[in-house]
Amino acid sequence: MSPAERAQLRATLGALLTAERLAGGWSVRRLARAAGLDRRTLQRLAAGTMRPREVTLHALASVLAVNDPGPLAARLLTAAGPSLRPNTDGAVRRRRHRAGLALVAGHRPLPSDLAERVRLHRTASAARAEAYGLLHRPGALDDPAVLDAIGQLLDESRQLHEQAGPAVVFRIGRHQIHAGWAG
């Protein structure tokens, strides 16, 4: 890569990545982890010493602009210009795999509407688990106060699940992660 190309990448893509990262309050390490990248890769992209792949820029945009990554991805691709390297099947597979790992580990943010649905389902499941815990206490079926508490918790659980909508299922490779009642 020529010094002129490095300077161009640093001035366009590097400056845009740094500005978006700082605006979102992301550290280099945290952003790299969330995007499924090595920290050094992100540093090299920002410094203009590495030609990016399209899939890498899309991964960064999906973290930096989680609710609407399209416009940021377009700006990143434009900033990369002719230095953009073509995707390969292997690069796409690796990026998807690493994005899945980041999601499972809780490093990758979810779009706000999806995150809210997952939160509601988890809260509903916790209320249901608490109700079942009360039900399994010795003498619970003979205590009207405990039965009332169980009824309230189960009603709360049902209302929260209805508010959350259908179950959220993440498919990552051959694995599935469920939030909510499937059925």
TrEMBL record:
Pfam families: HTH_31. It comes from the Bacteria. It comes from Amycolatopsis tolypomycina. GO terms for molecular function: DNA binding. InterPro entries: Cro/C1-type_HTH (IPR001387), Lambda_DNA-bd_dom_sf (IPR010982). The lineage of its organism: Bacteria, Bacillati, Actinomycetota, Actinomycetes, Pseudonocardiales. This is Helix-turn-helix. Residues 17-72 form the HTH cro/C1-type domain.
